[in-house]
Design brief:
424 residues
Amino acid sequence: MDGARPETGGAGNGAALLLQRIPTLGLWAFGVLFAAAFFSPYWLVMNLVHTLWWEGPGWTSSEGVNMGRDFIAFYSAADLTLNGNPAGVYDHETIHAVQQSTIGAPTKFFPWFYPPTMLMFVAPLALMHYLVAFAVWVLLPLIALAAFMRRYIGSIWAGAAVVLFPATAHSLLAGQNGIISALIVAGGLLNLERKPVLAGAILGLLSYKPHIAATVYAALLFGGYWRALGSAACVALMLALASLIAFGPDPWWAFVRESATARKLMESGGLRWSFMVAPFATARLAGLDVYAAYALQAVVSCGALFVLFTVWRRGDLPLEQRVAVLVTVVPLMTPYVFSYDLVMMGLALLWLGRVAWETGFRRGEAVVFALVWVIAPAGWLIAHHSSNVLVTPLVIIALLAVVLRRIPRPGEHGGLVESGLKAA
């Protein structure tokens, strides 16, 4: 993983090579990929305007949408924590009152379902003005992720792709944490073989989303990365202990109670199924009852877990390909996952795009690539405007099939390691 790719090191060389490769794509593949690429800046600019537009009262638009959207939940939790009431973040009336006070107008209620460890990370946000804190919250992780991927790949185009990826824009403009999760996953997994203890420590930070972290830690277990897994577990436990010492047991008891509330809201549609990406949401939108939806989710999750086990136990596979499988499996493993959580799936697209750059797209791959590229926003738009049909899980499964089809047999070469990517 030490060899540089001089032909992708600069924007000029990359653009020239891109023009040379276009005729090899075929008319249909080029048209599909061009449409997906065109959608990216359009989605970013349109949502940027819509998110930052305000007319009052307070920091709200004419439609009553608050600036920063979901970020108000993080900021209000930070405010309550710094003012000595961390358990109050789990009380609906208390945190909603802070949200409305911050915005200066009646706002939609945003609940807080994160463990108390998250409060230690968000608390400093309340030291800043709301809009400054929002900018810090979304821009610093974005810059860090783009810089990391640019350095890792050795091309400026990788950083640009991170910014333009519609899932990134979706998380960015919703004021959510999908970019932070992707940064943790990328920083941890892509250092896994060279610095396993450091990689595990980074991945331990993902414990702020335990339902997602569990799948990542399972991959470490299946792959026999014991030092990384131990390091991740130690960091997660230390964070939990630190929050217990700092805030006392009350926030943890409240978190357990609110987890049950989150489950009920998910089952009833109180959390909009169209914004979710798991098979459970697809089933509920299609009219299936809760038990049938859980059954479908269980079947898909078990299949995804088997795939994860099969791939990660193979030490002969390039790490980047196993990472591509992992980030594609994550949204299929839990019913509680949203469209802004798909930022990390960009690692799978990066892998597929780099391999296709070398070998060409196989039949159907360009279409799947384009669909996955736009699915984070397109999935809920389709669900909202097409009689509650959520296709996002189907697109994710299609990507998983494409990635698995690229897996070499034992003894064969494949993936990004042989392509000579630079390590971070």
